[in-house]
Amino acid sequence: MPFDLGNLVAAIGSLGIAAYALVDVSKIGRHGGVSNSGFSFIEAVVRRLFPNATRGSSAGAGVEGQLLGVLHGNWINGAPLGDQKAIAKSLIKLGLSPQTAPVFARATGVDAQVLGNVATGMTAGAALTPEQMNVLGRFDLVLTAMLDEGYQRADQKYRNTAKVWASVVAVVLAVLGGWTVAGSGEAYFFTTFMWQAVLCGVLATPLAPISKDLASALTAGVKAAQALRK
């Protein structure tokens, strides 16, 4: 048994990869399946700046009407996190206007009147004063922090949800696989053999990303131990 440990780890890792693949298929769903998980954190950040923003292609014209739809599309498509934050920041700043300035200022803690003057000056193409540049810089920093928090928490929620779903699928696959090996004519369910299969399913998800390297290392270690014994 000890010398089969490498093959065992490789098999469990393969089971985890298969479970992840089956979970990934859920992305074909209407709202993105498992990939939709976590987007609520991003949505909450956007609604602090655009309280009336809604998701969907028929949400309306302008930045406020299309922002959540664009960000949601990037999120479920799995675009790089840095690119998503940059796009979100650019679109939100594009929505800065004398009308939205009070809400933006309240959300970021900057002076509303000065930020409104910044929006007016940027719309007219006028040069900004040092005071206005300072407020705009503070607004930019706070907005970056808000988006970073939202996207980091969303990414954590997505990864954890995917792991939970994959764990459930891996356990089901392991139990069914064990039942197939045991044969339907023999006692299997709620026996030691079934619980061993359940354990393999539980281990499959965390082992999947590292199974290849771990199996290689274990194989090399076993070969070294065999060589020393000889």
Q: How does this structure look, described?
A:
It is a single chain. The protein is an all-alpha fold. It has one domain. It has helices at 5-24, 39-49, 62-76, 81-94, 101-108, 112-124, 130-182, 192-207, 211-229. Helix 2 packs antiparallel against helix 7. The longest helix is centred in the C-terminal third of the chain and has 53 residues, at 130-182. The two termini are 19 Å apart. The model is unreliable at 209-216 (pLDDT under 50).
Task: List the main descriptive attributes of the protein structure presented here.
230 residues; 73% helix; elongated; 0% strand; mainly alpha
Q: How much is the radius of gyration in Å?
A: 26 Å
Q: Detail the poorly predicted runs.
A: 209-216
Question: Cα distance, first to last residue?
Answer: 19 Å
Number of helical runs?
Answer: 9
- Outline the biggest β-sheet: none
How many strand elements? Answer: 0
Structural class: mainly alpha
What are the SSEs and their pairings?
Layout: H1 5-24, H2 39-49, H3 62-76, H4 81-94, H5 101-108, H6 112-124, H7 130-182, H8 192-207, H9 211-229
Give a concise summary.
Helices cover 73% and strands 0% of the residues. It is an all-alpha fold and 230 residues long. The protein has one domain.
